[in-house]
DNA sequence: ACAAATACGGAGGCATCCTCCGTTTTCAAG
DNA sequence: CTTGAAAACGGAGGATGCCTCCGTATTTGT
């Protein structure tokens, strides 16, 4: 055995990797321009590959959305860690939620993804969801531990609430954040 | 003039009224079963009318959704008035929001409608939206006037926030209501 | 009963969606 | 460098849905 026992034989083909990346680039653009309902056939066209190739790489629309925004959600998760270190718990939470709204504004897909998940079971939970859950969960856990706030709702649901509003108006979403935090403060 | 001056001539045709009702019935069923994206062609098929007839009566999907749930939204609006008379302002608001969540659970479409509106301009605002706006607006106005709460967010946005969560979990939506109200209380 | 006013219905053009499979490309062993 | 099989490509094709348009059928007032 010249290869690690677990992994089997070949290394990924070059053209496959290239096309995958092209698809992700085209998809990112398309989702940004036309929202999460952008045509998959057009994405394939723009990427210069056949529709079949798109489907081979990303079996479902959600799989594609997920991958496209993996980097965004990762950034958001990292920011949570950073903010947690730089600010007192409650302010860190507030700052991160505001950042979340800003991200939603730029990449409407994240919000759509959170909502989409509503309907049925989606792989979306897999990565984006996990990252988000961890980020908000950490910040809230910290704030609760500090004794400043009290929370009896699933952290992820707070994001859903904010996302619902942010899709329509950033301004109102920002105000919602303050209301939510005020509502969780221990009196 | 034997008719009111404004209205012109004829009375609505019998077949038109019948088909309209059939469409509403079929649509109600379809939306309940398959969500707000149910096929319009299938609705027409089930109703036993041509697709053309469906479109004549309801030019857009939203127009149909709107009509289907007009009774629900109307009931909700009436409830707002009633609760407003029976409870102190803040409790009336809380009670109505809980009722709102219960309605969402039963008819997921209302929530979907609120979200749909997000994307673009929709006739949905016309009736359902107006009724909702008025209901929540009234309750909040009253609570603010009583000096108990302070609100700097669009009332309708509160509903969007709640709807975003309610689509996934009633329990969490109910808790969200308490957080929101606590967050708006004047301290 | 009759004509005008209304309403019906579905064919047709267009846009996706997703699958399936014959062809092409890549990789690595010899 | 050859070579053959694994891996990937790509797009035609079948299905569904949207919406419009207009010739045909029904209803209504007189």
TrEMBL record, chains A, B:
Record-linked InterPro entries: Homeodomain-like_sf, HTH-type_TetR-like_transc_reg, HTH_TetR, Tet_transcr_reg_TetR-rel_C_sf, TetR_SbtR-like_C
Signal peptide limits: none
Coiled-coil segments on the chain, per record: none
PROSITE patterns, per database record: HTH_TETR_2
Source superkingdom: Bacteria
Domain HTH tetR-type: 17-76
Keywords assigned: DNA-binding, Transcription, Transcription regulation
DNA-binding positions: 39-58
PANTHER family from the UniProt entry: HTH-TYPE TRANSCRIPTIONAL REGULATOR BETI, HTH-TYPE TRANSCRIPTIONAL REGULATOR RUTR
Protein name (record): TetR family transcriptional regulator
């Amino acid at each position: 055995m010249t290869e690690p026992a677990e992994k089997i034989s070949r290394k990924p083909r070059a053209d496959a990797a290239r096309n995958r990346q092209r698809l992700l680039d085209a998809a990112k653009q398309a989702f940004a321009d036309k929202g999460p309902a952008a045509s998959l056939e057009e994405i394939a066209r723009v990427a210069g590959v056949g529709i079949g190739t798109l489907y081979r790489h990303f079996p479902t629309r959600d799989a594609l959305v997920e991958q496209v925004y993996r980097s965004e959600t990762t950034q958001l998760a990292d920011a949570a860690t950073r903010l947690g270190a730089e600010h007192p718990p409650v302010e860190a939470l507030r700052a991160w939620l505001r950042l979340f709204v800003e991200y939603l504004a730029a990449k409407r897909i994240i919000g759509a993804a959170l909502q989409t998940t509503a309907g049925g079971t989606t792989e979306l939970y897999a990565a984006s969801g996990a990252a988000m859950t961890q980020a908000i969960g950490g910040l809230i856990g910290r704030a609760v531990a500090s004794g400043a706030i009290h929370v009896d709702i699933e952290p992820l649901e707070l994001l859903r609430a904010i996302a619902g509003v942010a899709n329509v108006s950033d301004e109102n979403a920002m105000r919602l954040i303050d209301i939510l935090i005020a509502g969780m403060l221990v009196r």
